[in-house]
Amino acid sequence: MISILPKNKYFFPPVETADPDGLLAIGGDLNPERLLAAYRAGIFPWYSENTEINWLGSKILWWSPDPRFVLYPKDIHISKSMSKILKQKKFKITINKAFPAVINRCRYEVRARQEGTWITEEMEKAYNELHQLGYAVSVEAWMGDTLAGGLYGVLIGKAFFGESMFSLFDNASKAAFITFVKILEKGKCQIIDCQVETSHLKSLGADFIPRKKFIKTVSKAVDMPQIDFNKV
Q: What is the mean pLDDT of residues 111-119?
C-alpha cells in the first residue's frame, strides 16, 4: 500500500510495503532532514508528471525498488579505451568545485534529451542545500576552463547515492565517474547506489542485488565516518 507522507514528520513506512515497481510513498517535502532520512533507509525521491500516480496532487514520489541496481567500488570496470583516455588526462577531474553548475547542467541537459526532467527547481534548491550541509557531492570534468561533464549525488558515511550525470563532450561524465569511484574505493566506500539500470552503468560494473541486502549494507555504511576527500 502506497503511503501518504505528512509535511511535518520525517518518517517512512517499511520499504517492504512498496508496490511491485518500488513506489513506496507520495507527498511530504524535500527538507534536508527528510532527504537524509530517506537515503539512510534506502529510499530516494523522484518527481513525476504522471497524473495517474499523483492522485494526491503531489509530484514528489518516494521509491525503494527491489532488486536494487548498485556498484561496489572494487568492481568498477574500466575499458581499454577509457584507460587510455584517463592516462592521457584529457579531462581534469575535481570534487565539489562547481556543485550548483553541475546540478543545473544535469537538469537542463537531461531535459534536452528527454521529455521533461525529474530535476525540478525545487529539487535543485534542495540538493544545493544538502551540498552546503556537506552531504551532496559534485564531481566535475573540465577541458581547460570549460565544464565538460560531471555528476552529483549524496554521500552519507561510506555510502554514495548517485543522482544524475551529464556530458557536453564524449566520455566526460564517464571519466569523472570512474575517477570518483576510485577515490571512493580509497575512502573505503561500501556501496554506490545507482538507482536505475542503464547500459552505461552496467558496462562499468553495476548490477542488481536484492533490496534486503542493499538495505543491510547501507544501514551499516551510513553510520561509518564520513569520507574526507582531502585525505584520500
A: 53
Query: Does 83 share its domain with 32?
Result: no
Q: Cα(8)–Cα(76) distance, rounded to whole angstroms?
A: 40
Q: Are residues 38 and 101 in the same domain?
A: no
Asked if the peptide bond before residue 6 counts as cis, ω within 30 degrees of 0, the response is no
Task: Categorize the per-residue pLDDT at 50 as very low, low, confident or very high, splitting at 50, 70 and 90.
Answer: low
Is-contact 161 36, C-beta < 8 A? no
Residue at 227 is within a domain: no
Best CA proximity match to 42, nearest among 69, 2, 3, 19: 69
Q: Which residue do the cell numbers 566535475 mark?
A: 140
Identify the CATH number of the domain in which residue 24 sits. 3.30.70.3550
Rounded Cα distance, 172 and 25, in Å: 35
Confidence of residue 111 (pLDDT cuts 50, 70, 90): very low
Burial of 190 (0-12, 13-18, 19+ CB in 10 A): middle
C-alpha cell at 190: 561500501
The C-alpha atoms of residue 180 and residue 225 are separated, in whole angstroms, by 18
In the chain, beta strands by DSSP E:
3-5, 23-27, 44-47, 60-63, 68-71, 92-95, 136-143, 146-156, 159-167, 191-195, 207-209
